[in-house]
Amino acid sequence: MDKKTVSTIAYLSRLSLNEENGEKITQDLENIIKFVDQLENANTQNIEPLASPLEKTAKTRNDEVTAKNRKETFLERSPKSNDDYFLVPRVVE
Amino acid sequence: MSIQFKTINELSHMLKNKDISNKELIEETFSLIDTNTHLNAFVTLNKDASLHKAEELDKNPSSLALAGIPIAQKDLFCTKDLRTTCGSNMLSSFIPPYSATVIENLENAGCISVGKTNMDEFAMGSSNETSFYGNVQNPWGDKLVPGGSSGGSAAVVAAGIVPAASGTDTGGSIRQPASLCGISGLKPTYGRISRWGMIAFASSLDQAGPMARTAEDCALLLNEMCSHDHKDTTSLDEAIPDFTKDLNLPIKGLKIGLVKEFDLSKLDNEVVKVFEESKKQYESLGAEFIDISLPNISLSVPTYYVVAPAECSSNLSRFDGVKFGKRCDDPKDLEELYIKTRSEGFGDEVKRRILIGSTYYQLGFMMLIIKKLNK
């Protein structure tokens, strides 16, 4: 784990790190990677992977609209919106 | 007549016999909340709506299973028109437009949700010290943590303020605080209770469950919390048994497995003592202990340390300051809006777990290890 990798990871997570917690998290990530690395030694030959925590597969349902349009309810609870849209800073110059 | 430390059945009888009115019960509950504010166990109270519901019940008595029973709801469940923070600054002013299915189920059974309980931020913690709203105190002593993440729920039940509370458990978040506060709680089978309206942490592990002072109360709550829900594709479509049915069966002949890989010498002496005493108690009631082996149990924590943060990193990407929750002031562009909002809105432990999860993705670790892990 070097500084560059950690700052890439922070950027991908859209989080900013300062000098102090940057160093702490670098150390932390290194320890955790080492800790979970012991899984490498587990013998998993002849074991089928588990694709879902459930034993039964999900049921299908008819493709019918059940939800009502609640546009106003959701827009009015957003940090910034107009009558029709969520508003963000301009993205096209 | 004091209602403190009364069980669900005791309160139901008091209401039926008119020893107390629904309104008096709720008023008494709020006065217990007022005298226990030092626990810091509630984030948001629901006083007016609770009193209103109680008055309605006094006017039109109900025969519902949990009619008039006050309950505290973990602040991780969305509650319609009642602030839901998940212990985070990110959601400090979030008012959900709907209620979680489990909240609806409990309220449809007659429960009165008196407030939202404090918790570790986004359920990430085991001592209730990561909440944006401050630490919760264990009612058994001012230097004791209540455990976490459902620490507020455990504390209000242990203090006898309410007979019941909801919790959620991803990696011990009901069972551990229940243990630390001396109450009962359980993590039901995954899929038993709908996760719709629960703020997700690690979706393949998250499960809601009851917290109460007795096994009977947990069973009464579980009866109402379970349902098959079309809004949650992982919700089980299975018959729901009456969980109170077997409560009074004798335990003579019951076999209890003791995992031989668990090393008791790592535990506090007093905990070992209580464990040994409970073993004796079970044996005197006719239960039998047998050694069992879980040879891979030592891999459960490292496995959890991959699955939970990876899912957390994906789930918490929805908090971007655009559609709901907090948004930073004056972002100069969209990217700064995301980064500033998330950096200000999340606490250190949440950031740490997002970064751990992102690390696995970035290192290509997941693709290599996922098949192995799922075994």
Key terms for this structure?
heterodimer, A: 93 residues, mainly alpha, 37% helix, B: 375 residues, Amidase signature (AS) enzymes, six-stranded mixed β-sheet, two-stranded parallel ribbon, globular
Short description:
The complex is a heterodimer of chains A (93) and B (375). Chain A has 93 residues and is mainly alpha-helical.
Can you walk me through this structure?
The complex is a heterodimer of chains A (93) and B (375). In chain A, 37% of the residues lie in helices and 0% in strands. With 93 residues, chain A is an all-alpha fold. The two termini of chain A are 38 Å apart. Chain B is α/β, with parallel strands linked by helices. Chain B has three domains: 8-225, Alpha-Beta Complex (Amidase signature (AS) enzymes), CATH 3.90.1300; 255-292, no CATH class; 297-374, no CATH class. Chain B is 37% helix and 10% strand. Chain B has helices at residues 8-16, 22-35, 47-59, 101-108, 151-158, 175-181, 215-225, 269-284, 300-315, 334-345, 348-362, 365-374; strands spanning 42-45, 70-74, 112-117, 164-169, 184-185, 207-212, 255-259, 288-292. In chain B, the strands form two sheets. In chain B, strands 1-3-2-4-6-5 form a six-stranded mixed beta sheet, sandwiched between helices. In chain B, α4 links the parallel β2 (70-74) and β3. In chain B, α2 packs antiparallel against α3 (47-59) and α9 (300-315) packs across α11 (348-362). The N and C termini of chain B lie far apart (56 Å). The interface between A and B is large, with 48 and 59 residues.
